[in-house]
Specification:
Largest sheet: 7 strands, mixed
Shape: globular
Strand content: 15-25%
Number of helices: 9
Helix content: 40-55%
Number of strands: 9
Strand order of the largest sheet: 5-4-3-6-7-9-8
Structural class: alpha/beta
Radius of gyration: 17 Å
Oligomer: single chain
Length: 246
């Protein structure tokens, strides 16, 4: 029997089969405090980044949208308001704890947004089904990013858009300050607000292991997307990539 392939879990190297389990443990741990920590970590900026993504998406009334790794449902809520009663948004996540938070939030908001637990690397949807697919702050946690991107491309209609909102490579002059924030302050905030320093240490490490802007652009092109471009937000702390299926 061949030895199992290795992959990254933060700065650690683990067997590929172990990564999804370990990432799952992180998000089970932080689910109840996820939105609070996002607000604390980004000083509320994550909400602005998500609103920007919705505007850039070009989604209009009546469109169909797939929100992958959508967790607590911030983007699904914004997209549901955009597509209106004749459109459809589906909120998915691989993590049951995160998805339950999102489902409850959709119900509380009176929105008809179906939720589905599924793996982005094996999407249970037919080819050419969605006008827009978005993954926000989720791609870096996936074991086979290339496979996930190919699946997202597959389920898009011709002319449909894929958007990837993700932490990226910060502007070089800010890198030392950003490292100090990520590896010193972030775990302290995780311990203080979420009672979990280790998960936020992992999240900081996972950002550093994620492909930079140009590498992710090339990966999206290799997955079959065209006219791929990106927007740097907050000096490259976050980047929004957009590509089309042609």
């Amino acid at each position: 029997m061949s030895e199992q392939q290795q992959t990254h879990f933060g700065f650690k190297t683990v067997a590929e089969g172990e990564k999804a389990k370990k990432v799952g443990e992180v998000f089970h741990s932080v689910a109840s405090k996820y939105d609070l920590m996002n607000d604390v970590m980004s000083a509320g900026l994550h909400r602005t980044w998500k609103r920007f993504a919705v505007e850039i998406s070009g989604v209009k009334a009546g469109d169909t949208v797939l929100d992958i790794a959508g967790g607590s449902g911030d983007l699904s809520k914004l997209f549901a308001q955009k597509v209106g009663p004749n459109g459809r948004v589906i909120l998915t996540d691989i993590n049951a704890s995160m998805l339950s938070v999102g489902r409850d939030r959709m119900l509380d908001a009176g929105l008809n947004v179906p939720t589905l637990q599924c793996d982005a690397e094996k999407l249970p949807f037919p080819d050419g089904h969605f006008d827009c697919v978005i993954v926000a702050f989720g791609l870096r946690n996936m074991t086979h990013k290339d496979q996930a991107l190919a699946e997202m491309q597959r389920v898009l209609k011709v002319g449909g858009r894929l958007l990837v909102l993700e932490f990226s490579k910060v502007w070089q002059p800010l890198s030392k300050l950003y490292d100090a924030y990520s590896f010193k302050l972030l775990p302290i905030m995780g311990k203080l607000f979420a009672k979990d320093a280790d998960s936020y240490q992992y999240l900081a490490e996972s950002i550093r292991m994620h492909p930079d802007q140009e590498t992710l652009k090339k990966m999206m092109e290799e997955a079959g997307l065209a006219k791929v471009d990106y927007y740097n937000l907050a000096a490259g702390v976050v980047a929004l990539h957009k590509g089309y299926k042609i």
